Hints:
homodimer, alpha/beta, Quinone Oxidoreductase, Chain A, domain 1, Rossmann fold, seven-stranded mixed β-sheet, 12 helices, globular
Amino acid sequence: xxxxxxxxxxxxxxxxxxxxxxxxxxxxxxxxxxxxxxxxxxxxxxxxxxxxxxxxxxxxxxxxxxxxxxxxxxxxxxxxxxxxxxxxxxxxxxxxxxxxxxxxxxxxxxxxxxxxxxxxxxxxxxxxxxxxxxxxxxxxxxxxxxxxxxxxxxxxxxxxxxxxxxxxxxxxxxxxxxxxxxxxxxxxxxxxxxxxxxxxxxxxxxxxxxxxxxxxxxxxxxxxxxxxxxxxxxxxxxxxxxxxxxxxxxxxxxxxxxxxxxxxxxxxxxxxxxxxxxxxxxxxxxxxxxxxxxxxxxxxxxxxxxxxxxxxxxxxxxxxxxxxxxxxx
Amino acid sequence: xxxxxxxxxxxxxxxxxxxxxxxxxxxxxxxxxxxxxxxxxxxxxxxxxxxxxxxxxxxxxxxxxxxxxxxxxxxxxxxxxxxxxxxxxxxxxxxxxxxxxxxxxxxxxxxxxxxxxxxxxxxxxxxxxxxxxxxxxxxxxxxxxxxxxxxxxxxxxxxxxxxxxxxxxxxxxxxxxxxxxxxxxxxxxxxxxxxxxxxxxxxxxxxxxxxxxxxxxxxxxxxxxxxxxxxxxxxxxxxxxxxxxxxxxxxxxxxxxxxxxxxxxxxxxxxxxxxxxxxxxxxxxxxxxxxxxxxxxxxxxxxxxxxxxxxxxxxxxxxxxxxxxxxxx
Lengths: 329, 329
């Protein structure tokens, strides 16, 4: 049994974490032992290791916030479950581990035919994309949405979820080499960011009013995105990949009455009812299991390569997700 | 008859404007001739001369958007008015002029005992301050509000209006030399901006949750102000005195669910009903006429000194408003 542990935080995330042997506790009432099949390394995981995230677990801690596994051993009073069942791990449970003991009532059963790698990314990025499309602006089929960081995992899910709802997306990337990958994930319209972005967008959309912009870059990329929005449009930020604060000129958002909001999934989890949360997961799990919703995967790593995996996830210029397969040789 | 005219726009506002002789048209039905007593030079006027404002009049144009005057001559069918009456000039009518012909029905009569200089600033800055306090967050007596650019005219009005509503204000200035002037305009709590601002504010307010922040500076001053706000607080920007875009780190406003909005009075005028607008002016005119609401005046200029006046208004480090008295010497 091994897991990725860290006892301190620091600016180079792969230096604070390492794979460590551990002993499993015995199974209590209502608990099951799970063999973890897959768990991704999300940007929020990296920020948790560097200490920049909005909430930080007490130290020492096990990394990882989501994943899938198979039920390996049943503890007392877990009759509703079967050995071998595919399950979603509880969110925030330290999922970078070969095995974990979990309260069975916190597990969500997954469609058995689903791809474990794709299902392991279900809990964080797809709901982020879905909720940003749904919670801020009442969009109707045919409406346009614009996003930057279109090459990110959230960006890819957003393209697919938007399309399934009849929304059209303008997808912005920072480098030309990313255009093909974004198109391959289903995006029809992909533009490379630049000072004339709003002009190229207006041409693309024939001047349609864009009411929702989604920013994960920050810096002047926020301003360039904001300039593409129509009067009283809303910009939602959910990340700062540029490492810079969002920049927004008063002229852009005062004269056009723009609204800037932030989206943080952890906050939504804190406030949405369990029924609402379950409905979101059920909708998304079905789409992922059926292959309608998927993310590109750049590489997978075993638990012994946890440092390489974190370094790859923290690096620039990825074209897909880094996923741990903890029990992989 | 002279007025401040410009036929082009440019980066040095005092260079595009000059005092020019003009001939008054004869009075039509329902029109009166007004002798202009006072008209301020607002930041929005300067941005109109440089071309940076959100709406620009066709050229050539007469500068100035607000002011007061006395009725000097009555045209046909203006029986409701009397020679010598003190009136508010129509907004946006080109008020940097010794005289103007106006439709009497667009005039608002003012309390005759009011100070024309103070009343001349009634239409733009006081409603900006009042509406920013009123339209975004439902504040209750005892609540805190924080603003930067506290040394501006809007900042001064905001202190006075907030106090009259039982709100407490934290007032931020950029330089120590401005503290006394802001205190003199009625502010109890004045802090000089800096990286530890949020800590000093928390100490001052004993950690009270601040739900409204008002920003007219931009740059990292926006971020420092945002850090003082409580969870789900709203920041309203109405200007960019630093010349930089507002900077807001994703960590500050995503993790704390802040809302960023812009306020533009011209937009409010376009959308608010005439009754609402009249109610705002009536409330404010009474307070100004009674001396409860006032702005510091740095200097007044005659129409022949229009270039000096604009240069003074556009300059840094003012401690009061620049007001034209067009008919002065």
